[in-house]
Amino acid sequence: MGMKDQFQDKSEQWQEQAKQRAQQGKEQAQRGKQRDEETERLLSEEQDRLDQDYDA
């Protein structure tokens, strides 16, 4: 195996690793977005309960 082949193999490995990290980042961002939506929903529900208590 020549030097050129070694560099090409290493380059391909790095590209694959970069793709995997990008995919993991997307998945983490999606989970973060879902948590944010859930938190927002819970805060909204809590605010509604507080508003009802004050209206009563």
Secondary-structure blueprint:
Blueprint: H1 3-55
Task: Describe the model.
- The chain is mainly alpha-helical and 56 residues long.
- The protein has one helix at residues 3-55.
- It has 1 helix and no strands.
- The termini are far apart.
Total helical segments:
1
Quote the beta fraction: under 5%
Oligomer: single chain
Helical residue percent band: over 70%
* Mean pLDDT across residues: 89
Secondary-structure element string: H
- Major sheet: none
Distance between the termini: 81 Å
Number of strands: 0
Instruction: Give the overall silhouette.
Output: rod-shaped
Structural class: mainly alpha
CA radius of gyration is 24 Å
Uncertain regions spanning at least 5 consecutive residues: none
Descriptive terms for the model:
0% strand; mainly alpha; 56 residues; rod-shaped
Q: Outline of this structure?
A:
This protein is mainly alpha-helical and 56 residues long.
